[in-house]
């Protein structure tokens, strides 16, 4: 892609610093705090705004890509990308372990959260890349495992005037001991089209 640039881990800032962070070559190992999550109200009745996200500016006409190893085996273990405007307006997309398998999904929050997901059992233990592309009044979420083709995950609204940040996210809502290996963090041009 044109204008693709790796983002150094040290360039971005933590929203809710995790329990531990360790550089391992070019990778970053992030240990999530037990009970960490992002969610607002819907169905469960609670608000969580304490997941771990390493954020950088996300202006219109750019895309952020985050790579990680989807090595999850406990309920709601998750990693991916967070796009954040504020505590009531954000999008998270990635892989989450639920119903006994990794699920590719997204949560779009505009005051309250929604959640969509689809099982990707063959992605377990493999390197996944989530790409969020901001163009006009929308964010397009795509994902792929290793070098397989990109899959469309979600098209969601995002006010073009909103100041947003985006970057790697991980959460461990139900347990301690989750460490996620992040393998890449990059910025590039927004996708030219939806299809």
Automatic annotation (TrEMBL):
Residues annotated as signal peptide: none
Domain of life, source organism: Bacteria
Coiled coil: none
Gene3D superfamilies per record: 2.60.120.200
InterPro entries named among the record's database cross-references: ConA-like_dom_sf, DUF1349, UCP022704
Name of this chain's protein: DUF1349 domain-containing protein
């Amino acid at each position: 892609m044109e204008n693709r640039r790796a983002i150094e881990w040290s360039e971005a800032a933590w929203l809710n610093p995790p329990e531990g962070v360790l550089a391992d070559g070019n990778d970053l190992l992030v240990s999530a705090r037990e009970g960490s999550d992002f969610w607002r109200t819907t169905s469960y009745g609670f608000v969580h705004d304490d997941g771990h996200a390493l954020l950088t500016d996300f202006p219109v006409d750019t895309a952020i890509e985050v790579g990680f190893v989807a090595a999850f085996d406990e309920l709601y273990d998750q990693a991916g990308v967070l796009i954040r405007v504020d505590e009531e307006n954000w999008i998270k997309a990635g892989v989450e372990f639920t119903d006994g398998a990794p699920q590719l999904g997204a949560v779009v929050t505009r005051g309250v959260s929604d959640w969509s997901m689809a099982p990707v059992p063959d992605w377990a233990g493999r390197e996944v890349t989530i790409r969020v592309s901001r163009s006009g009044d929308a964010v397009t979420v795509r994902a792929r495992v290793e070098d397989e083709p990109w899959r469309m995950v979600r098209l969601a609204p995002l006010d073009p005037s909103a100041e947003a940040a985006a970057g790697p996210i991980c959460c461990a809502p139900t347990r301690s001991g989750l460490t996620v290996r992040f393998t890449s963090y990059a910025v590039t041009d927004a996708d030219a089209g939806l299809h």
